[in-house]
Write a structure and sequence with these properties.
Blueprint lengths: L13 E6 L2 E5 L21 E3 L1 H10 L2 H4 E4 L2 E4 L1 E3 L11 E3 L9 H6 L4 H5 L2 E6 L2 E6 L3 H4 L14 H4 L18
Parallel strand pairs: 2-9
Antiparallel strand pairs: 1-2, 3-5, 4-5, 6-7, 8-9
Length: 178
């Protein structure tokens, strides 16, 4: 038995059941907390990868020709120029669905968002056939919602990782389009 003063290595990956029968290997500090912060919109500066199911759901709600584009055989929500200085990336662009008030039109008006949006600020990868989850490296620098609440991410993984991820051939989330 280790001595009482031994500190557990918080970076040691651990297996967590996210949904019944669906496990993920968690590679971030289990003490990490997260809560969306009003006006942040950092996650909306990225192109949103649409899995097939998301694409079909989006088609029920919005015009796909206006809101999506295909790159290297994958569907994404368009990033577009915004005529404002708030809620945009350094290039003046953001998600097609990001409204002027900093809210997502899909979430606010349809109570729905693509799987990829649920995953932020986490990163999903697959190794040896298993889903691994970590915090996006850039989130430590840009995401204002880290460490601002008592809501431990590891205790709420089902809110970040929709069940759909386990049905996908490749649920990898960090796909860059531009």
């Amino acid at each position: 038995m280790p001595p009482c003063d031994t500190v557990e290595d918080v970076t040691t990956p651990r297996r967590v059941e996210v949904h019944p029968g669906c496990e993920a290997i968690v590679e971030f500090d289990p003490e990490l907390t997260f809560e969306c912060v009003p006006e942040c919109t950092w996650c909306c500066h990225h192109g949103v990868l649409l899995y097939e199911e998301d694409f079909a759901e989006l088609a029920k709600r919005e015009n796909l020709n206006r809101s999506t584009k295909q790159l290297r055989g994958r569907d994404f929500v368009k990033r577009e120029d915004k005529d404002r200085e708030e809620h945009v990336d350094v290039d003046g662009r953001a998600c097609h669905f990001l409204r002027d008030d900093g809210l997502c039109a899909l979430h606010a008006e349809h109570d729905w968002k693509p799987t990829r949006c649920s995953v932020f600020p986490l990163s999903v990868s697959v190794e040896d056939g298993e889903i691994h989850v970590d915090v996006r490296e850039s989130a430590h620098e840009y995401c204002e919602g880290l460490h601002v609440s008592d809501r431990k991410v590891v205790d709420h993984l089902d809110a970040f990782l929709p069940r759909l991820l386990w049905d996908l051939d490749d649920p990898t989330s960090d796909v860059v389009i531009e």
